[in-house]
């Protein structure tokens, strides 16, 4: 069964055209998904890219409540990719990431709990040297 | 394209029989996968369940090098589900999780970098009250 | 000027009857305040005491959205009193605390941003030995 | 009853002239208080502002013992406003803060435990966008 | 040249009778050293063992200032052995440690900065299984 | 008895020519040691200095497995010197350090567990002001 977090994670994991198409077709009604990429040694750039996209793509209204929900979701996903040692450039590592933003019910058909926003980050983190990196994944979500 | 982390995460995300079958069929050679579940307010139980399964299922040899690689992979995945606030029962929350253990090359066909071990955790974390919980996901990996 | 966090913090700081009375009288409309105490070496007991009081006193409705907002507010306040080293009994220290729960607008008259919930913790933390302790304070808040 | 931490926190919370006057009048003997403000996305600027003021205003002697006590008090207060996720600009958030430095006995009349130094931080933290921020508070103290 | 931290660390590292003798002989005047061992999966036991020994051996006077300095030194050394993931039994690992407590000037002959207290922890941490463990070391110090 | 971590730590602690000579002479076969120094308020410079030296001195082969083991060892040692508050310049402190890199068996003669790599950091951390600093020590190690 589909759910908010699963949609967010599958969106960043599946890059083959047929997979993406399949995921789009199986997207339950009530969910809005955006997917893009960002890479940096400067963690603030990751936060900024997602915040900017979320506003431009209409995932959050122009009020602090919604921005706050998005921000904490990014922060939680960021902790997921950092795995206990928050930081990128300051500990000499870089991240090349796909991210997804998903807005919709926490679980399919669970209308009485309102809308939530999820952020997933997936990609590679490692030394700033080609191929010296491994996969990382983070997921965060909050009611919006 | 498949890779160690993607296999670990898709394994815990896909629970429908047809999905599981599809994933099994698309598993590149050289990878070994195990999947099970564990739930607790006591984080040590999550570590113990995965350690025990990994030994019983032959994912690690009986030496410290390999156990150490597995342990740190669990620890990193655990940080992913905790998102910056390590702890379960001590901060009054509980986790119901699927976990996967995957052993194989870091990326398909990347034989010259040896074998790695990945652990993925996916499920729900929240108040110890039915339905008061949301999805969490963590991924950790190390050379073995 | 009054605001959500200031009300929460003043509520736990002021214990003299005349101060409490003054604070009650100056409470802007739209705010609901509850204040009590909890002490323990077991951090889960602090979370449980506040969650239970919040439900019993009608600060949150019986849905996960609101419980989630309360939970994260407690967690943030808890980090405030722990100051970088989350934990109580596990690092051999104990806390004797007053806590407050406040629900209302983020700032007085700021109606367009909905309601928020704040938790403040104030008291003494230290060795489990009379008088070997110093003051600590934590504040957390989230939209509800 | 007054105490070191309470004085530090009330000092940053009370901004109305009459409140400030009241607090000054009720300040028990033996306490020295300084209050100012600092705002930045660069956490080092917050540390520097408080260190500089403490030296200039005579809160610490020119020796490492006292500077060390002040530094750790700032660090603990900083953890309080960060609530488990240390960092400002690196996680794309900014802080506009009032801070207080207080030196005196841990509790009024408790002369046999020497002098302590407390630092309180209170203000707003959030996105670098007007009004997209909420209150934060941190308190740290050490024997000096 | 000898210094507080170096004395604390050498004390826990050197276990051969001739090394211990050499260290005792080279101990500069003004330093007091105690050394013992503690092992547990329960981190509180490590704190308790050191606190108890420090009191019994006269390293701290019976006041909170000195106990506070000792406590924070233990806490800092504990972070050193935990290396970013505070916890023992809760993350299914155990520690078998030698610890030292040292009181004296921060550096030899540096009398104008008063006395400091240092705690060093050295030993093995790992799975609760014989030989599945590696060395860890932590050092903390504070003015007393 | 000698072991990987002890060699790493003694290497950074002992600076007198006769101590260094003694340590060199007592170095069990199978161990390779490098020792140098680095100082900065920018933590990335510490990571970079050690990574560069390890490559130049032949401590790691040119593959990600080995670089990964080194990186995590540096990261763990870095946590040791930071003692729960990761960061240098961002919390207005600076570090002047000696570091050692050691490669060899985890314990002398323990050949069946392969080679490990250890990193030790020792020196002074404190305010960016001469003499306002105290000793810190960190140790990290991983199988390579
Ligand atoms: Mg949550
Ligand atoms: Mg890694
Ligand atoms: Mg917030
Ligand atoms: Mg303290
Ligand atoms: Mg210090
Ligand atoms: Mg390890």
What tags apply to this protein structure?
binds magnesium ion, alpha+beta, four-stranded antiparallel β-sheet, Hut operon positive regulatory protein HutP, globular, 144 residues, 36% helix, Regulatory_HutP_sf (chains A, B, C, D, E, F), homohexamer, 31% strand
Question: Could you characterize the architecture of this molecule?
Answer:
The structure is a homohexamer of 144-residue chains. Chain A has one domain (4-143): Hut operon positive regulatory protein HutP (3-Layer(aba) Sandwich), CATH 3.40.1510. Chain A has a four-stranded antiparallel sheet with strand order 1-2-3-4, with helices on both faces. In chain A, 36% of the residues lie in helices and 31% in strands. Chain A contains four helices and four strands. The longest helix of chain A is centred in the middle third of the chain and has 19 residues, at 64-82. In chain A, helix 3 runs antiparallel to helix 4. In chain A, strand 3 (115-126) and strand 4 form a beta hairpin. By secondary structure, chain A is of the alpha+beta class. Chain A has helices at 4-13, 17-25, 43-56, 64-82, and strands spanning 32-40, 94-105, 115-126, 133-143. Chains in contact: A-B, A-C, A-D, A-F, B-C, B-E, B-F, C-D, C-E, D-E, D-F, E-F. The interface between E and F is medium-sized, with 33 and 33 residues. The complex binds magnesium ion (6 copies). The site of one magnesium ion has 2 residues of chain F, from helix 4.
What would CATH call the architecture of chain A? 3-Layer(aba) Sandwich
CATH superfamily of chain A: Hut operon regulatory protein HutP
Q: Which two chains form the greatest contact, residue counts included?
A: E-F, 33 and 33 residues
CATH topology-level name of chain A = Hut operon positive regulatory protein HutP
Number of domains of chain A: 1
Low-confidence stretches of chain A: none
Keywords (chains A, B, C, D, E, F): Activator, RNA-binding, Transcription, Transcription regulation
Family (chains A, B, C, D, E, F): Belongs to the HutP family.
InterPro entries (chains A, B, C, D, E, F): Regulatory_HutP, Regulatory_HutP_sf
Subunit structure (chains A, B, C, D, E, F): Homohexamer.
């Amino acid at each position: 069964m589909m759910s908010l977090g699963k949609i967010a994670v599958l969106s960043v994991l599946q890059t083959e055209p047929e997979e993406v198409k399949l995921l789009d077709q199986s997207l339950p009604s009530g969910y809005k998904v955006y997917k893009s990429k960002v890479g940096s040694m400067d963690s603030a750039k990751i936060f900024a890219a997602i915040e900017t996209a979320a506003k431009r793509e209409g995932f959050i209204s122009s009020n602090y409540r919604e921005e706050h929900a998005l921000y904490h979701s990014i922060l939680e996903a960021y902790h997921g990719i950092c795995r206990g040692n928050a930081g990128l450039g300051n500990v000499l590592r870089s991240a090349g990431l796909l991210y997804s933003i998903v807005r919709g019910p926490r679980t399919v058909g669970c209308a009485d709990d309102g809308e939530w926003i999820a952020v997933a980050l997936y990609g590679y983190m490692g030394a700033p040297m080609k191929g010296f990196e491994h996969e990382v994944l983070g997921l965060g979500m909050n009611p919006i």
